[in-house]
Amino acid sequence: MTQPVSPPHVDLPKEQRAVVRQALLAFAVCGPTLVLASLGLPRIFTFPEGLAERLAFALRADLVIALWVVLGVRMVAKVRFRSAEDNAGSAYSRPSARLAVPKAFLQNTLEQGFITSVAIIALATVGGEAALAYIVATVVLFSLGRATFLRGYPHGAGGRAFGIATTALPAIGAYGWVLVDMASDVAGLAAG
Q1: Taking burial as the number of CB atoms within 10 A of a residue's CB, which of 6, 12, 124, 178 is the most buried?
Q2: Distance of CA 48 to the CA centre of its chain
Q3: How much is the pTM?
Q4: Which residues, at least 6 apart from 30, have a Cβ–Cβ distance to it below 8 Å?
Q5: Distance between CA atoms of 89 and 81, rounded to whole angstroms?
């Protein structure tokens, strides 16, 4: 049986400061990127107008999100294939040190991927080209977030913070946009 991986000593106040700094940096990257994409991309590209085409656009964007999950699955499978400690599967032993980071990356990517995929599909139902341009930026930022999350994982919470925030912020913005659109629809129905 594999021994559990011991967490490194954590200086919590130092990690918290690093998390806040990295989250603010992620906001400084995501905010302008999402605004510029939403306003600028419709001037360059023609986006679908019909609901079916918009949903097809969203599902294709979600494919990129799913590819990050596939990458995480592949990383875990590769370690399990080569490691006698991990080959039996998670039901029979704790992950080895070699498997711990790929497994954590996969778990977090599944969580963030679900949240982002739902946000993308919901945003595709909002009228106008800006919403679809926002989806394009969301996919790019999700990819940047996943890459930097994985790269920073061994460096503690401060090392992961930019990646997780860059992954999550576009989805949070999309949820907000859709909720405002839904409230506007309800208000319009109530007034009519």
Answers
A1: 124
A2: 24
A3: 0.91
A4: 141, 165, 166, 169, 170, 173
A5: 10
